[in-house]
Amino acid sequence: MASQVETALRGPEAFQLARRALAEMETAGVWPTPLNFELWLHYVGDPEGPLGREITRLLGNKDAFTEGTAEMLAAEYLPRGRLSEEIRDAGAVLNRELSSVSDAIAKARESQAAYGETLAEAGANIEQAAAPADLKQLVSGLTDATSRVQRENATLERRLETSTKEVARLREHLEQVRRDAMTDALTNLANRKAFDEELLRACDQAEADNSVVTLAVLDIDHFKRFNDTWGHQTGDQVLRYVASVIGRISKNPRVAARYGGEEFAIIFPGEGALQVEAALNAIREEIGSRALRRRSTNDELGAVTISAGLAQRRPGESGTLLLDRADEALYASKRGGRNMVTNGERLPAAA
After folding, report:
1. Which one from 152, 262, 263, 345 is the annotated catalytic residue?
2. Mean pLDDT to the nearest integer, 181-210
3. Is the C-alpha dihedral spanning 7, 9, 10, 16 positive or negative?
4. Residue of 295, 313, 292, 312 whose CA lies nearest to 303
5. How is 247-277 classified by DSSP, letter by letter?
6. Name one Pfam family in it (predicted).
7. How far is CA 150 from CA 94, 154, 156, 275, in A?
8. Is 300 one of the annotated active-site residues of the chain?
9. Which has the closest alpha carbon to 303: 293, 316, 295?
10. What is the DSSP letter of 347?
11. What does the pLDDT look like over 203-223, one tens digit per residue?
């Protein structure tokens, strides 16, 4: 799966995986373009996955691996490709709807203009219509014209109603696509892109209304050694477990994200350093309170611990500087023996 490969690329076997991908590409006679390299990383990292099986099939058939083939595979199997395809499809549907509505409005305008001409002509003729038969003919013509305009207006209303529902459906779909693009597939927390945007927004808001915002960075202790011992699938299990605890305690307006391979970050709008320190200790204690077991073999894995650091934003401070100070606090926790929370506001450099 994509998340399995992405985790491997942040672990000790990343370079070995990259070398294998290049070797396989050279054997298959595939040029090492950035897109081909990304495809082959997933191929060698997860050969039994959907993308791996498709590349195996293509190679078995001795099909030429062209740029078009690579783009087709990326659109079908890589998350970013599927996202782009969904956005393009939604845009095409929206364009059709807007074109249809535009045509309906144009016809309605023509009908209204014709109706106006009919009324003007009737106004000019009514004074000359002395006989009842002439008046009856005028009234009949006006009635027909009015009925025609009413029918066309009703058609336009139905078309607009249908388009409104379709646009609402597209808006909901695109919002879901946007959420998916901002969500880490493995942990269901916000991903790095979403975190970067939210940190910028939170700092701007704090600066605008002179409010407080605190940032925390958390890291799973000895995760590399854990991955080397038990494998990446079990490592994924640990990541999901830690993320579930972080996500449950970090409800809105807090924003929790997977910041890196085994690193997480939480933004605390409106909360000071002491409040955040208490919340992080609650997370740390809950994570460390359970002895985990390996799902596939039921082997006992022992307890997982985390280290954390936090920093409270200072007036005028950017998100980058705030993140740097939170990282310094995290490193202090690592140096201090791990399984602890360091309040960066208490570090000597924060004085």
Report:
1. 262
2. 89
3. positive
4. 292
5. HHHS-TTSEEEE-SSSEEEEEEET--HHHHH
6. GGDEF
7. 27, 6, 10, 64
8. no
9. 293
10. S
11. 999 999 999 999 999 999 988
